[in-house]
Every structure is written in structure tokens, then in C-alpha cells.
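Hi Y.,

Following your request, here is the sequence exactly as I used it, all 373 residues.
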Amino acid sequence: MKTRKLIALVITLVITNIAIAQEKPNGYKFKDLTNIKVTPVKNQQKTGTCWSFSTTSFIEAELLRMNNTEYDLSEMYFARYAYEEKAQDFVRYHGKINFGEGGQAHDVMNQINKYGFVTQEAYQGNEYDPGNYRHSEMSKILKALLEVVITKPNKKLTPVWFDAYKAILDTYMGEVPEDFDLNGEVITPKRFVQKEGFNANDYVELTSFTHHPFYEEIILEVPDNWSNDPYYNIPLEEFMEIMNYSLNEGYTFVWDGDVGFDGFSHKKGVAIVPVGDFEFTEPKEEKKIEETYRQQEFDNLTTTDDHLMHITGLAKDQNGTVYYKTKNSWSDDSNEMGGYLYMSESYMRLNTIAIMVHKDVIPKKIKEKLGLN
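Below is the corresponding structure, written out as C-alpha cells. Let me know if you'd prefer a different format.
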């Protein structure tokens, strides 16, 4: 009797499993085509500092490529100095420019040229609540102070307003160190950069829009380009060529683009532009994205600049569609792929606002058109 019950139970389980297997879609199966060494996924938490996390991750990968040395660099070190520069610009422009937590990849490189970089251990960047990043209260207080300053209650700016501003940053983020311990050596942030042989001027930003001339430096009209840094503008096909060449040569790059698009799902680990409905069950035919459609979506504010991530490799799904392996900064437990996702070629063509690459991965023919050495 017990035997018959056991057999019946086994049969029921087998039938149930078969039914589940039939109902379950094939899903996405990715095969990585490149294998570039990068550092672990980090978490920007409740801050708008994706620009620093993505670019810092990129720099860590560059140090691995150059010296085979792994560092955990401080993202908040760059954010701290960016807050200072934003304040100076906000006051000089009488409050008529963007002030917030956002930024661009060049903001990190600009800070490196001025202040160097430090390890995460040397600058945690969260003085009042170690281990947690939350900038909303701090940024609102900073903005409120600046709004008062530009009204000139004393008829002109006092010489201490910036000291008061930095004191708020010190309170929330901590004072930046003049030097720190690096494997038993006391070193300055700028000396650290020199020791590693890192040159921030080796990196350039590229974009692709038809409302500007190609092969020229242009000011990209996105709110977080608060410093008005220039980008090289190139045709879409060459834009994609540089991305692919970079990854195939063992270089990663920083990606700036739109993640508010319906085809983006960090939770599912994919970003797609399907011909039909937006489903994340299995690979489907993707739309062909040309320059005219890309420009149209940017001009009507459908494609916007809202997130930066680190592109670390190339991959293909089971249908042969090309994807870009992407390291996000939303923690390694934010999805089932350890914090990574795969963005399709069509998604990249449509939703990429800009990239930052090492200038050595720009093919010679394109370099010549841009006048780059």
C-alpha cells in the first residue's frame, strides 16, 4: 500500500514538473564573447552618483589592465569635490544653472587632474552614518544655503560663504585627507595617481547626434553636463564601431544613457528594443535603429540622460543577437545576475547618450577625422 502511494506521488511530481517545464519559457541564454577583468559590483544606494560609481569602476578596470593591481577607490571622494565646484558655478551664474547630485564621466577625470584619487578605506564619504549613502537631505541643505548666498543679504558676497558650505560637506561626508596609508606607505592622492601611471587626459567622451556637425567637439545638451565639457560628435556607425573595438581589444568603457525606456529591466537582467511587445521571457526580433530615429527620440525628450554604467564585455544570446555586458551600481544582490545586465545592440544604438573610452581604442581613421593624437 505504501509502495503504491509512493509510486503515485512520484508520478504526480513527474507530471507536474513536465507541465511546469512546458509552461516555462526558454529564457535568455548568454554566451560571453570577451573576458575583461573588472572589480566587484558596488552600490550607490540612495544617491544620484551613478556617474562617479560607473567611472570609478572604469578606472579600477583600467588599473587592472595597466598594472594588474586591484584597488577599491573612493567614489565619494570625487562626489565631494564635484559638490564644491557645482557650488562655485551656481553662485557665479546667479543660480541659473543646474545644481544636484548628478554628473558625467568627465567630472571624475576633472577631479583626478586637480585632486588625485584615494582608496575607499581612506575616504568613506559618509561621516554620520558609515556604510550608508543618502544625499537627499544634504543636497537640499546645500542648495538652500546657495539660494540664500546669491540673494546677497549683506549687499555683497561674504568671504566665508564657501567655508560654511564646505563645513556642511565635512559634517555629512567627512573631511578629505591630505594623505593616507597605502599598503604601509603614506602617500598623497596626487602621488597615488602618478605612482599608478594613470593619465586622465588619455580618455575622451564621444556622442552621436545629427543636430551637431560630425567630427567636431560639441557641448552636449543634457542637464547633468553642468560643467559644459565637450564631447566628440561622430556618426552612429562609427560610434558603435568604437564600442566594439574597445571591448575586443580588452578595454572597457563608461556608458551614459536612458534606463527609463520600457525595454530596460535591471531585475530581469536585460535591456531590449523588440519589434513587438516588451516582454522579458525569451529573445525576440529587435528593431533596426538608424540615426534618424535615434535623433527623433532624443529631440522629443523620449531618450534622456538619466544613468551611467560600466560596459565590461560583449555577449550573444542563443539567437546570435549581440549584447553588451553591463556592470550596474545597484549592488550585487539587486538581481539574479549579480548586479549585471545585458543590453542589446539595438538598445545601445537607441539609448546611448555618450561614452567615455581610452583614446587608444579609437580606430586610426576616426582619430584622424577628429584631429586626435
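The longest helix spans residues 2-23.

Thanks again,
Q.
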